[in-house]
Write a structure and sequence with these properties.
This protein is of the alpha/beta class. The chain is built from 7 helices and 10 strands. It has a 6-stranded mixed beta sheet, with helices on both faces. A 4-stranded antiparallel beta sheet has the order 2-1-4-5, with helices on one face. Helix 3 crosses helix 4 and helix 3 runs parallel beside helix 5. It starts with 11 loop residues before the first strand and ends in a 9-residue tail after the last strand. The model has no long low-confidence stretch (mean pLDDT 89).
Length: 237
């Protein structure tokens, strides 16, 4: 029998988390929130508010300076760092700087997570080509990143993050380099992934998308978090 989402542990939990780089001031201060399984949230705030830093904690690129962070019911403060790669396999990340491998084609870049998982090549090719077609790159499957425009690279990066249906998807300005038509198409792709159970957090400045898709907001201001729930949806506690 499938468990009710409400009975499942939270995907992410922050308890009074602070983050500073080196001896500098805290860039995140007293962060406290949790994300329920299958929830969808926008992450908003002015440039420099701490959005990228918050995402970096959620995909384990950084560790809290203080406080408690839990991912998939695992306290990362107490977990052996050797287990981090196993935790990260449940997380899809879309970076602002794409982080594609220039010597690989679009198809090969997107296929990487599936190859790591040991999926058969025939199945990899089918899934990768379907997803690249969905993001509008069916004519660029064999293109390498240096030959692609910024918006096309962004879509390759998004496809790579989605290909293994992660439990948690984190996207840092995923629509920043595409037009409104493609941005809407990509948001609908994120929503479809969310419908099958993936928890989604999207950092964005695009107020049009935020208004069109009324999901709750995690809002950061000067390193502090405010919760701005939608009237229609709420998954943040």
């Amino acid at each position: 029998m499938q468990k009710n989402k409400a009975s499942l542990p939270n995907i992410v939990e922050f308890e009074d988390v602070g983050l500073r780089y080196g001896q500098g001031p805290e860039v995140l201060k007293d962060i406290r929130f949790s994300l329920a399984p299958g929830s969808f949230h926008f992450l908003t705030g002015e440039s420099g508010a701490g959005k990228t830093s918050l995402l970096s904690l959620m995909y384990l690129a950084n560790s809290p300076t203080r406080g408690r962070l839990s991912l998939f019911d695992t306290d990362v403060n107490e977990e052996n760092r050797k287990k981090f790669p196993e935790i990260r396999r449940n997380i899809g990340v879309v970076f602002q700087d794409f982080r594609l491998l220039d010597h690989l084609t679009a198809q090969e870049n997107v296929a990487l997570p599936l190859r790591v998982m040991g999926i058969k090549e025939l199945e990899i090719k089918r899934h990768v080509n379907e997803l690249l077609s969905w993001v509008g790159l069916e004519d660029h499957i064999n293109a390498k990143p240096p030959t692609l425009a910024g918006g096309q690279k962004q879509r390759v990066a998004i496809a790579r993050a989605l290909i293994n249906r992660p439990k948690l998807l984190l996207a840092d300005e995923p629509t920043g380099n595409v037009d409104d038509r493609i941005a809407t198409r990509l948001l609908r792709l994120f929503i479809e992934l969310n419908k099958i159970g993936t928890t989604v957090v999207i950092a964005t400045h695009n107020e049009g998308l935020i208004e069109r898709f009324p999901f709750p907001r995690i809002h950061l201001s000067s390193g502090r978090l405010k919760i701005l729930p939608s009237a229609k949806m709420s998954g943040i506690k």
